[in-house]
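Deliverable D4.2, example record:
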Amino acid sequence: MNTAATVKEILIDVLQLSSDTEFDEDTALLGAIPEFDSMAVVTVLTSIEDTFGIEIDDDEISADIFETFGSLCSFVEEKV
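Output generated by the structure prediction step:
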């Protein structure tokens, strides 16, 4: 499973972005994408948990994880 491609699909689906939206490691997320609000964070985390079969504890979540696409992918890869 390609983690980055799967995380990209989750973001596109949850945030209802165009399917041709590009993400690279430095793409800013939280604060840069208007659709990425606190409710979207919860939905993204739930989708990641369901898709990857992992559990994310509340104390693991910080704004740093959602700073960039790369930081989010790195977090997911560490959990998998």
